[in-house]
Design a protein that fits this description.
By secondary structure, the protein is of the alpha+beta class. It is built from 8 helices and 5 strands; from the N terminus they run H-H-H-H-H-H-E-E-H-E-H-E-E.
């Protein structure tokens, strides 16, 4: 494959040189990606940058394909930079107003081979104030105790939480254990004054919302 044409930028200079001279805010999205890749991309600049932007904007299912095209180390650098930016922007997030908003916050856990039970903490305006993994389960099940869910929420003065976990099998229907666990957490939240607004089960492709199905 041909090397990425790193001189194909708006001002004719390499992205890293442009960043040094003008600052990161002067770079286009494509140029920022090229700078992150540190000259590690292959194929044409336009095609690689477009596919990466497609992944960032919409489709988590393209990640494996993109990793193969870029190479593992380049993809790891890009993924790490995206995650760092996401964490730094946590305090500026918009209110969580729908199950889809919750899914956006946790979808990067979807490809894990073990169940990850995630808690998204919210303030009184339902803005995200933080998130954490309460527990990591085995291949097909995760055991949750209310103290693992609510202790950090109490410490962070959360007014509400959204809970979520991935199903490595891809089957999004809740098990009896999922329903029982949700009921227990909702009841615990009522006692503590911390509302559980929803529980979603998710995969790379989609999610199941307990709230949308009147299970919470």
């Amino acid at each position: 494959m041909d090397e990425l044409n790193l001189k194909d930028t708006e001002n004719g200079s390499k992205p890293k040189e442009k960043l040094e001279k003008l600052g990161p805010e002067a770079l286009t999205d494509r140029e920022l990606i090229m700078a992150l890749m540190d000259y590690g991309c292959t194929t044409s600049c336009e095609n690689d940058a477009k596919r990466i932007l497609d992944i960032l904007n919409s489709s988590p299912t393209l990640k494996k394909d993109m990793m193969m095209k870029l190479g593992k180390s380049a993809w790891i650098r890009l993924s790490a930079a995206i995650e760092l930016g996401r964490r730094k922007l946590d305090g500026k997030s918009k209110p969580i107003s729908s199950p889809k908003d919750i899914y956006r916050e946790v979808m990067h856990y979807a490809s894990n081979k073990q169940e990850h039970f995630i808690v998204v903490m919210l303030n009184g305006a339902q803005e995200k104030i933080g998130s954490f993994v309460a527990t990591v389960g085995t291949l097909n099940r995760s055991i949750i105790h209310p103290r693992e869910v609510f202790a950090p929420a109490i410490e962070n003065r959360a007014a509400a939480i959204a809970i979520a976990h991935n199903h490595p099998s891809g089957n999004l229907l809740p098990s009896e254990e999922d329903i029982a666990t949700t009921d227990k957490l909702v009841m615990s939240g009522k006692i503590l004054g911390i509302k559980v607004i929803d529980h979603i089960i998710f995969s790379d492709e989609s999610f199941f919302s307990f709230m949308e199905h009147s299970l919470i």
